[in-house]
Predict the structure.
Amino acid sequence: MANLKLENIIHSQKTNEILEHTKKGLGFVPNMYVNMGGNTALLDAYTYSYNSFRANSGFTPAEQEVVFLSVAYENNCEYCMAAHSFVGDMMTKVPVEVTNAIRDGKEIPEVKMAALSKLTRLLTVNRGIVSQEDIEEFLSAGYTESHVLGIIAGIAIKTMSNYSNHNTTPEVDTAFAGRIWKK
């Protein structure tokens, strides 16, 4: 795996503004954000899209975490699995058995969350190509066609961070250390 050396990167004014805003909101700046800030376009696109997904995807906060965890699992992103497991446990109240099932690649015990994770994983692995049967199965769990598009937005967001993390290898922040993960 590649490992970019970012010691000589100078953050732009826009990146510094994003990092400062993040610190005000979270109380700290995640290492992933610092690394993504090596390119302002990447960090800006990620934070804008992330915030839009949170506000506009049509998913509950718990469902949003299921999308993010399912993408991170398929993309084998250790940092995002730790971070979103923490967020799921502490902030969005994803049942721990759901989070752990995704982390372990096992069946999710709740039907609607299982359908959401399954379609997210299929779309991620198959680069957006799934069968009509896969879509119908998802819709029959109580979701809408708009939710399919919301999953695509979630995949795009997590793919940005997953790929960045694969190449910049941020250290898992202390806040997320209790949920470190390896596939």
Observations:
- The mean pLDDT is 94.
- Residues 145-168 form the longest helix (24 residues).
- The radius of gyration is 16 Å.
- Residues 9 and 38 are 6 Å apart (CA to CA).
